[in-house]
Write a structure and sequence with these properties.
The chain is 21% helix and 25% strand. It has 256 residues and is an alpha+beta fold. The protein has a 6-stranded antiparallel β-sheet with strand order 1-2-3-4-5-6, covered by helices on one side. A 5-stranded mixed β-sheet has the order 8-7-9-13-11, sandwiched between helices. Strands 10-12 form a two-stranded antiparallel sheet. It folds into 2 domains: 85 residues, Fructose-1,6-Bisphosphatase, subunit A, domain 1 (Fructose-1,6-Bisphosphatase, Chain A, domain 1), CATH 3.30.540; 137 residues, 3-Layer(aba) Sandwich (D-Maltodextrin-Binding Protein, domain 2).
Length: 256
């Protein structure tokens, strides 16, 4: 929608919704979902789009429903992240996991490696160090995952830890990131941080980014706290993979 739908001018809350996340996976029967963010209505916004231009830290609640082998509602109201699983016999969502805590460290990461040539040097450096496993500077082996369904990626991380990366890259339309801040990155970030994890745009917290447009895009990295913080250090140190590679390994003699 290009404009918000005003249901009640006097309502104290506004809702941002991604109604069908992961829709490209429908034909392959991979888990998809619905993501939502609930924000306080701003008194001076007049019910227009500017009401949504708030940092994610102001969310009153956030969550998603995932449609897969189980149908589950994952919810936070600012007091932890909880999972409610649909009981089909009664039609009710029942609390099945409360106050989830994501493991602080990780041996699993999710990224679309086919885009490697478009990434920044910092992301390529992180990826290369994970690929080297126990023989590289990380000193341990990793598994790689990529589902291309944000709710499924988040659900896996809530279940067993890990990290998800959807960085900005050099392709047209991807330089500011690809995921939407308002109704994808912000609600996922709140769920993750309420579960003890961390979510950044590669440099700073997702939840502190000011909203400036309804469909504003952002890079998104989230998951186990120590791994996300490590990626942040790669970015801050401005690693350049090419500088650590043999001559011609990643750049030619006449190439910057």
């Amino acid at each position: 929608m290009d404009e918000p739908l005003v249901c009640d001018d006097s309502a104290p809350l506004i809702v941002a919704l991604d109604p069908l996340d992961g829709s490209s996976n429908i034909d392959t029967d991979v888990s998809i979902g619905t993501i939502f963010s609930i924000l306080p209505a701003l008194a001076d916004a007049g019910g227009g789009m500017h009401a949504f231009f708030q940092p994610g830290s102001r969310q009153k609640a956030a969550g998603y429903v995932i449609y897969g082998p189980q149908c589950a509602l994952v919810l936070t109201v600012g007091t932890g992240t909880h999972i409610f699983t649909l009981d089909r016999a009664s039609g009710e969502f029942r609390l099945t996991r409360s106050a989830i805590q994501i493991p602080a460290s990780a041996r699993e990461y999710a990224i679309n490696a086919s885009n490697q040539r478009h990434w920044s040097g910092a992301i390529r450096a992180y990826f290369a160090d994970c690929i080297e496993g126990e023989d590289g500077p990380r000193g341990k082996d990793f598994n790689m995952r990529w589902i291309a369904s944000l709710v499924a990626e988040c659900h896996r991380i809530l279940a067993r830890g890990g990290v998800f990366l959807y960085p900005a890259d050099a392709r047209k339309g991807y330089r500011q990131g690809r995921l939407r801040l308002l109704y994808e990155a912000n609600p996922i970030a709140l769920l993750i941080e309420q579960a003890g994890g961390k979510a950044i745009d590669s440099q700073g917290p997702i939840l502190q980014i000011p909203g400036m447009a309804l469909h504003q895009r952002t890079p998104l990295i989230f998951g186990s706290r120590s791994e996300v913080e490590l990626i942040g250090r790669y970015v801050a140190a401005r690693h350049e993979l090419s500088e650590r590679a043999p001559l011609f390994g990643y750049r030619g003699l006449f190439r910057a």
